[in-house]
Write a structure and sequence with these properties.
about 150 residues; alpha+beta; 4-stranded antiparallel sheet; 7 helices; 4 strands; globular
């Protein structure tokens, strides 16, 4: 967004974002907390018919949109061909550049490809990565509660 005030507000409230790198299966995986748009993207894959299917259907899409690097390589570079990479990376908004993307649409194109790939991995790997996502979300909630309390007082 071009408006400076909107960017300042977004940057201030983005303080709740956090990252975590873990080693799993001999590889380093870097994940991040989800923003609202990423949560909406993830939720379109969630099966709401039964409580068990709700939980299991949430794992891979959550990890897909949360995963930003494997072994130090941005997932964008792992799953997109040069032809599929969009736009000018230098012109991307700060939060997209931090994650290694040039546009919001590219972000979700990458997540789609990562989701397809994750669905081919052993369930246990996805479960472990999902546990990291849950931990990051708990941490973000705690930070945001403090930020919002401070703002409202």
């Amino acid at each position: 967004m071009g408006n400076k005030l909107l960017n300042v507000i977004k940057d201030e409230l983005w303080k709740g974002a956090s990252f975590k790198e873990i080693e799993l299966g001999g590889h380093k995986w870097k994940l991040k907390t989800l923003n609202d748009g990423e949560t909406v993207w993830r939720d379109k894959y969630v099966q709401a018919s039964a409580s068990y299917s709700f939980v299991t259907s949430q794992r891979a899409p959550t990890v897909a949109v949360s995963l930003i690097e494997i072994d130090g390589v941005p997932v964008r570079d792992l799953v997109l061909s040069d032809d599929e990479k969009s736009g000018d990376f230098a012109a991307a908004e700060d939060w997209l550049r931090v994650l290694g993307f040039s546009s919001v649409s590219e972000r979700y194109k990458v997540a789609e490809k990562v989701l397809e790939w994750l669905q081919e991995l052993p369930t246990e790997i996805v479960e472990e990565l999902y546990k990291v996502c849950l931990e990051l979300e708990r941490n973000r909630r705690e930070i945001m509660e403090k930020v919002l309390k401070k703002t409202l007082s």
